[in-house]
Amino acid sequence: MQQTNLTINGQEHALDADPRTTLLDALRNHIGLTGSKKGCDHGQCGACTVIVNGRRINSCLTLACMHDGDEITTVEGLGQPGNLSPLQSAFVAHDGYQCGYCTPGQICSATAMLQEAKDGWPSNVSDDLAKGQKLTDEEISERMSGNICRCAAYPNIVDAIREVAEGAEA
Amino acid sequence: MTRHLVMDEPATKRVLDELPQSLTGKPMDRPDGPEKVTGTATYAHEWNLPGTVHGVLVRATVPKGKVTAIDKDAVMKLPGVLGVFNDERFLRNPAQGTANEAPIQGPDEIAYLGQPIALVVAETFEQARHGAHRLQMRYDVAADGVFDPEATNVPHERPEDDQLDQGDLDAAMKQAVSVVDQVYRTPGHNSAAMEPHCSIASWEGDKLTLRGSYQMLNYNINELADSLKIDAEDIRMLSPFVGGGFGSKLGISAEAVAAAIASRELGKPVVVALSRQQVFETVMRRSESRQHIRLAADADGKLIGLGHDSLVSNLPGEDFYEPVMQATHFIYTGENRRMNMEVARVNRICAGSVRAPGEAIGMVALENAMDELADISGIDPVELRKRNIPEMHPETGQGYSSRPFAEALDEGARRFGWDKRNAKPAQTRDGEWWIGMGMASAARVNMLKEAKARVTLNADGTATVETDMSDPGTGTYAILTQIAADMLGLPGDKVETVLGDSDLPKGSGSGGSFGASSSGSAVFLACQDIRTQLAQKMGMDEDDLKLDGGKAGDMALADALAGDAIVGNGHIEPGETSKDKRQATYGSYFAEVGVNAVTGETRVRRLTAVFGAGRILNEKTATSQCYGGCIWGIGMALHEELLFDTRDGHLVNHDLAEYHVPVNLDVPQIDVHLLEERDDWASPIQAKGIGELGLCGAAAAVTNAIYNATGVRVREYPVTLDKLLDQLPE
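ok -> structure tokens follow
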């Protein structure tokens, strides 16, 4: 067993778990935060995306014991029913999901992605690596392509993110 | 009381159009949305039962043979391991959709590589996974496994009821002015729903509760009971949220039975989740197909002959085969017809329903052949299809129910700007990209299934809808809420819909696109039952009852109810209207692609699709379903392919890194338009199914556009760049 101290959604947790436990399994099986989903357990689908120290990562690809002292935000920390974050509301309004299983990962990913864009990070479709990027639909799609949605709500996911991105600019 | 309707007559009284409120059809947000976006929706693995222990399945590493020994003792010694189970009730493969009984059981008789054999249960997931990796099994390997459906040593069967020989196709082919005679191949597909299959089993005495991810509890409970040799009355299944199904969760599967057996033995709740690789290797695949299509047309492009023969595969002993020619039978005219189905028996993963079984691949090959015919005959592809819309079913002579097929073709062409297409291939360049446009028709059979629902008009003037029906993302929560709200004159937020509990009245289950119209009809009938009772209670004629804005006439509903709830039950069954008319849904797709002249990579630049599916129950969720279908079409056209090793039948690309489903950047913004339509023959709410229609021909629009862009016909899906590269124009 391995002791790990994690701050999750602003709350401190002392995790005592098998060192083989992934961050995803720690959240779901040990801490009871099942919002982060297991779609592939191999970093291929993005359903487990959480925000660690401000960056989005696949929580299935990292062991919990590697995150001692880290600050983790999961979908539960972004908003709750009745108190939704702007992205969560936009996903509801634009039907940015169907079955909903990839949705927490999409929303965590989009939350961090908007900050990356704001900070001027380029993407694979950016024309210029140095200049800040306007979030065109193509930029949004590229930056969200690590999050698979088999229901294929992609057009609606782009609509939802674009709306929030434009609202933040205005 | 129960309002029971057998659909023997068309429902010409369009009740939902006559109500004062019309929430039905509107793009209402899903009531289950806030739970989904906050991670509080409870999927199968997410019930917090104290003391739950974890099970991991262990599977065959040989393709055919017998298990002769399992070294349980070595694994039992590992830390945390509680049990190693290998029970004769374990399932060989999942039950087929609507089977209503156990599939083939007995894990020790191996029929395919990857078949579940044992379950290792331990205190934690990490311990169980380690134990599963360590479990040693011995086999008596059979040398007579067969793995290639097209090999000559593979036994082939011809299902009797899927052979058609009408008129003289050979003569028609000789007599025709234009002919197409081509073979198309589609590979196997995986549903790849985002939530891997998972079950949590817990017992109280002889009563089992199974929390799982299932599309059809109404059948699944009987399949589970039959598998375990217990009574269905002793089981409760819960499945309020299903993280995608697409056919893969139609029938009870191995993890549920294994979890139930282990839980009973250990006296603790047991959770068994499939890994992504296990989903690929133990749940249903869509069969690959070889399709031989022959089209014989006269000088006007009118079909005088139509042939469509198919070879698909499945495991020995499985009744299901991919009904490839399902829509070919009724979509186009042509009096001389031959359609023969052949099924190869191979030692591969079980084949079963994957979204739109039949049309998903059959319409694609047919629509490729129609494009070839248009090209050969010099007739515009839209016009060619319109000329071949039959007046009567060309085989049965049946009439058609509502069929806005020509309208969908015309409206799609108009919205897309089809008139700007250059019919001559390889004429348009945009930088290093060859640009082309292609189109295809959509068609899918429509079905109504038996369904029951209970609606309670509560004493406080709110309502509760209850059925064991599922919502695997299709929008069931939304549409049942909307129908009940309109029928009872309530705002949507005064209606609560409760689903996914086998203790509730049996709905239709979600599959075959019949869920919304069937379960929606049951809710509609239950509300009619309430209206009758309420009118009686108020001492008035039911025709005079006006329910609107939470009031009955001028009286608040709560006052009219005077402290009593009213319970209404609805029960719908298919009847004569299913036989009187060929019921189906129709549409069209128009795609613009770019094919890179240097790399051969294809990108879909634009996609327009128009669909008619009877009354649309929720514009927003229906549109999302159509986006999903179209994007599955893009995947089918360009990336998706199960690759089997023909030496031992093992699946080579068993995860999402190797089996390529479309990602966000693969998809353009899509224009989906839903036609205003009512089909009185389909259901009392004039609705038909829409969940699969979006896929039924979509890939052909993309590949026809590739031909228009490059002049290259690829008849072997998917059209990956290696199949284009050496044929691209200079």
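The mean pLDDT of chain B is 98.
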